[in-house]
Amino acid sequence: MRSQDIPGDLSEILFTEAQIKARVQEMAAEIDRDYAGKEPLLVGVLNGAVMVMADLYRALTIHAQMDWMAVSSYGSGTQSSGVVRILKDLTQDVVGRDVLVVEDIVDTGLTLTYLLENLASRGPKSLKLAAMFRKPEANKVHIDMAYVGFDIPNKFVVGYGLDYDGRYRNLVDVGILDPKVYS
Ligand code: IMP
User: Fold this and answer.
1) Is 129's C-beta closer than 6 angstroms to any atom of ligand 1?
2) Domain for residue 40, yes or no?
3) 171 lines ligand 1 (CB under 6 A)
4) Residue 94 domain-assigned?
5) Atom 21 of ligand 1 has which residue's CA nearest to it?
6) Each residue's pLDDT tens digit, 132-153
7) Active site residue 107
8) In terms of pTM, does the model score above 0.90?
9) I need a surface site. Which of 29, 51, 135, 161 has the fewest CB within 10 A?
10) Is the CB of residue 53 below 6 angstroms from any atom belonging to ligand 1?
């Protein structure tokens, strides 16, 4: 789906498919460099990270593995609830592994703070975070974001895995959802 397929739904296009693709390549190059000689385990957070994981993972030139977790987040609203539950856990053991969590977006960081603490307690060799988008609120919590795609305004955005009520994940661009869609 492209932005022209949903006329009026976006108040602004923030990043085009080409811009996102280019940035993912840059992030992958950094990860290649930092993990040279290692074989990291990329941990994606369902469902939002599906797109960034698929692109980032394929852009790597080093060996890496992939696993997934699902946690509860926004539900159908546009505000973080602060309630985090593990709905699906990893299938692999992370003890002694170089774990790189791959996230779509960090907003309040509530979800990630919980997730990172939980993963840290399992004894990985290293634990880092890659997120495609970061909102200003994310700077208030102490999360070390090793790889960030883009800093974005404090608006509700959709596309490239980010949804509103299950929709727009398949939008190839990323844009600000017009408030009329959810008001
Ligand atoms: P946080 O706990 O506030 O950092 O929120 C994390 C999760 O909320 C993300 O993984 C997304 O699933 C969702 N989220 C946060 N901001 C947005 C947004 O602007 N659009 C769509 N989903 C969002």
Assistant:
1) no
2) yes
3) no
4) yes
5) 162
6) 999 988 777 878 899 999 999 9
7) yes
8) yes
9) 29
10) no
